[in-house]
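Per reviewer request, we include the raw input and output of the structure prediction for the construct analysed in the revised manuscript.
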Amino acid sequence: MAERSPIDPALMLAAHGRFEEALHSIAQAISSRPNEPAWHNEVGKILMKLGRHDQAIIAFRTAGQLAPQFAEAFYNLGTAHQEKKDIPQAISAYRQAIALRPNYAEAYNNLGNALLEIKEYRNAADALERAIALVPTFAPMHYNLGSVLYESGQIQASVERLCKAISIDPHLPEAWYSLGNALKDQRKYDESMAALQSALTLRPTYAEAWNSMAALHHERADYKAALAAVRRAIELKPHFAEAYANLGSTLKDQGNLDGAIAAYEKAIALQPDNPRIEWNLALVLLLKGGYERGWRLFESRPNAELYRFDRPRWDGAPLNGRTVLVCLEQGFGDVIQFVRFVPRLVQLGGRVVALGRPPLRRLLEGQCGISQFVGIDEPLPPFDCYTMLLSLAGLFHVSTSTPSATTPYLQLDVSLLERWRSRVGRAGQLLRVGLVWAGNPDHSNDRNRSVPLRSIAEHLAVTSVQYYSLQKEANGADIASRGSALEMIDLTGQINDFADTAALISNLDLVIACDTSVAHLAGAIGKPVWILLPFAPDWRWMLGRSDSVWYPSARLFRQTAPGNWSTPLAEISKELSDLVRQRATQSFKGEF
């Protein structure tokens, strides 16, 4: 019969959850034999059960000092540091454990997870692949690698690895949850729903899975189901900041702006260092006209700090001959809208150099006080300070009564206009109307703002109208869906940049567009533009208005219910018919 260890009673107590008694018992054993590394290691494990991580770290370090080859002590030390979010110390301890035991699969696994926390994705994947090579049938390791691949943007590879984890152990709710998120990103909504439901079947109290289910319902515009799911997530995890943010987004898209603000405020109180939540709150505040705080929180927008230079950021003071670099950030529509503020920099004595993407060069160089346009991959000229373009609104204290510039504020080259006039040709008595029905499919709100072309075809097949496609890279299936009722001339193959698009628009009578950069471009050059807006519009279009403070030539046609384009399209159809009749009458009188 094996000799009983003096710490066996302590281990038995710990096995039954009697941790304080176990500590007292093992302390008595250690007092008589203080140099037993395994005993200190056991003390550390019991302290971890009690959540006393600092004391556990001391115990594991003691074990490692007493036995420098004790790989498990260093592994446990890494675990304690990781639980405390001391990630560099955790990584160091795991690597020491691996150096002592090169085939230590658990240490490789935990090392991979620690490296994931500091976004060292390649090293994390290497560690987890090593762990899997050592223990290929352990599902959590495949799940962890799937998480690393997902965070590094390798969505399909993540899906494949998560499926592998599930094939080994189909009862792993975390793997089903992560798979649901990855499939949602691939827009495989039915498969995503099934995966998340599997996670919730295995763990009905899985708050994160309920929150992801809410986001999926929101993506599919099922707001009632989204609200029920996100409220269940909050019920299960009352301090769940991401769930409150999700609640805010859902309420906003339902038109409940006050409820959205309250939800975002709660999320920020729970997680004050999350810029995305602040930015979402800013968008609702701006939509309601809360400009002062809205512009302040707007500085949390994605990529607001994408550009960093060894020059001071402009603070609004007079420039007095200094050169200011203006970073043309965010989407093309944002740039076209906000470039109106650049002349104020010139009024303050500045020389403006614009840093932006090449498709904007011909449109903007020499416009709005821009002396020089520099592409994002080109060497920068000397400059004294810099600013982000969209920050100008806050610096200039823009409000609903101050955003409009004299329009048109973008002028076009005469020779370019003439070239496009010859391409457009003569339309006789036909009304020439440009159409844009879809935005960038990668835009976070594209599901709401883009209009099915078949819906446009059903409503806008108005006689005496010649349509011109302004839709670059149009989806082939979308084009086919319009049938023969809506004929369009497509000259987009000859468009090289926004200057070409602007010249084409200038040779039309009217533009009808969803909320995209083309709508902004038409407004900036003073062309009549009718803009189709979703029920929950972008902040810049405000609420309940049929006009725009940003573009005097714009008219706004709004959904009256989420997803319902029939009402605004019917309004546009009527307006188009009236415009055609008016044009015919004026032409008959010799006015055209």
